[in-house]
Each structure stands twice: as C-alpha cells, then as structure tokens.
Description:
Shape: globular
Order of helices and strands: EEEEHEHEEEHEEHHHEHEHEEEH
Strand order of the largest sheet: 9-6-5-10-11-15-14
Structural class: alpha/beta
Oligomer: single chain
Helix content: 25-40%
Radius of gyration: 20 Å
Distance between the termini: 33 Å
Number of strands: 15
Number of helices: 9
Amino acid sequence: xxxxxxxxxxxxxxxxxxxxxxxxxxxxxxxxxxxxxxxxxxxxxxxxxxxxxxxxxxxxxxxxxxxxxxxxxxxxxxxxxxxxxxxxxxxxxxxxxxxxxxxxxxxxxxxxxxxxxxxxxxxxxxxxxxxxxxxxxxxxxxxxxxxxxxxxxxxxxxxxxxxxxxxxxxxxxxxxxxxxxxxxxxxxxxxxxxxxxxxxxxxxxxxxxxxxxxxxxxxxxxxxxxxxxxxxxxxxxxxxxxxxxxxxxxxxxxxxxxxxxxxxxxxxxxxxxx
Length: 274
C-alpha cells in the first residue's frame, strides 16, 4: 500500500523479523504472540520538524567531564546527537576555572589534583569548547544545560549550600538571564534546573518525582520549592515546558534510568525546546 502509516505484525514465539519499508528499516525481536503497531506518521512529523530547524543555533553549557565533578557524559552526548539530528548548529561553552574538586569515579572519593572545567569539558566536545564569557544570547536560538554534579559544584554552589544559600557563577547567571530576557528557550535537565529555580523563582520546573524508588535525588524538588518556584512531578520518560518563561526541563539521571532511557528522555527534552 502507498500509505505505510501503520503496520501490524503478529508473531510466533522466538521469531526474529526484519521489516523494510519507507522511511526506515525496523529490526526487532518480538515477545511470544504479541501484536505490535508501528506508527510511521510520527517519523514523518519528526522529520518535518527537524527540517524546520535547519540553520538554527544552540549553545550548550558544560561543567566539566564526569558525573560526580563535571557534566554527566551520557546526557551531554545525547544532547549533542539529538541537536545534530534536528539539524541545529551547536557550540559548546564552559567557564575557564578550576573545578571545586576532583572525584575518583571508581571509588566515589575525592582525590588530589586540580583540573580546569573548560579543559575537562573539551574532552566531551572533541576539543571544541569556547569560553563561557564569550557567549551572547543574541547569537543563538536556545541554550541547553545538561546535568551532572559539576552544575551543582562548578556552575553553582548548590551541592555545598543548598537552594537557599546557593550562588550561581556570574557568567552562567548573565547568560541565562540574557536568554530569558530575549524570550529564547532555556533547556535544563537533570540537576541543572536548580539554576533556573534560583534565577526565575516564579517559573515551573521538573526534577521528576518527589519521592519513590529509583529517585535518589527526590529531595531536590522540596528544597527548590522553598525558593518559590513551582515543581511539577514527571515520570522518567517525560518533560515539562513552562510556556510563559520558555523553560524546558526533564529528569534524565535524576532517575536511576538506563543509558538508552536517558538518550530517549534527552531527545524528548531537545525536541520540546524547539
């Protein structure tokens, strides 16, 4: 048929099927006697939306390299891949400054030595990182801040002072306020919404769920609510858009998710920002 908008397949136990049709090839392993529907209308919608973003530019702010003292690697790479998928030009930025400390990611313990946030961030961007001081909101269509403890340690003092006492790195504050004043999208995922909670206390954000198994950082929501912002509860595969403030947030690794789960959630977050 010309219309490949839906394809129903009924399988028998243990059968591996490869299906080829426009616009993609599907290869999957079906569970016993399960009927699945693949709706390719979503594919066409996504493709259409991606083409509309050709020529747009996004700034991505990094905070080092590694979840415990920098940017969360899976979140960063997922962000870059999905922006590229949407045809968006990306420039990564990071502050030129010493990390607050260095964490041994095997032991989870502080170790000796000093590292520079920009130099470490460059590992994630294949060396292409610009000084955060040079970032101007007028040159970009949106700004993205992936998570990782570096956001709470290097870009702010949230990890040490909590929501009430935290301060934000002046350059980070300047940039986010510039995007907000120009009504351009601000996308924050994982722990990064703490920055928005401090700067835009009347806005809406999500860190995922406020309690429950699989949410080890659930207390962040209650802590940030004290700043006056509205915290929206979302599942690990959801996101929230504050249309009035043009702020998009998603849980990502605030949940004990899988790498692919993070990739998918970051993809939702990136798409929602446009």
